[in-house]
Amino acid sequence: MNEKDDKKGWIVLVDDNRITLLLLSRYLEVAGYKKIVTAINGVDCLKKVNDLVAKNELISVIISDTMMPRMDGFELAIELKKQPKTREIPLIIVSALNDVANQLKSIKCGADDFLSKPIEEALFLAKVKLLSRVAETDALLVFASTISNILKTKHLMMHEKFEAIQTLVFENKEN
Asked: Domains in the chain, start-ordered, CATH in brackets?
């Protein structure tokens, strides 16, 4: 997988602080990521993620702050993991509350990783790249499984047709 392959899916940034959204977006843009969606809280994120999923768009990773109005990052994680179409999307929780209790809470809510504020650019980009690869590999596995199932079905249909033709040939031979 080359560098360009890591940047196929959407990156969703969730934070009620617009300066943080601009900073993280800038980090991603400079690193070559083009598909970036921002949301100002968990409710806004769910709407945007569901819109992307409805269009069969690949979401590589969601990066969410914890403390936001309407729906915080922990509630967002729980909601994303409840939905079959979003439960496998990698999620990074970001928080200034970087004690072990909050990190454990993030994991229990369904986060795949945790980043402390202030966010270190190199670590942020490394985690985005890693989880993007995971998401894209998962998408390829689902695709491969679908193709495999189609081929098995086609093979079975061909086998049944072959047997029917064989039966007709033997019946005609006897007559």
From this structure: 3-137 (3.40.50.2300)
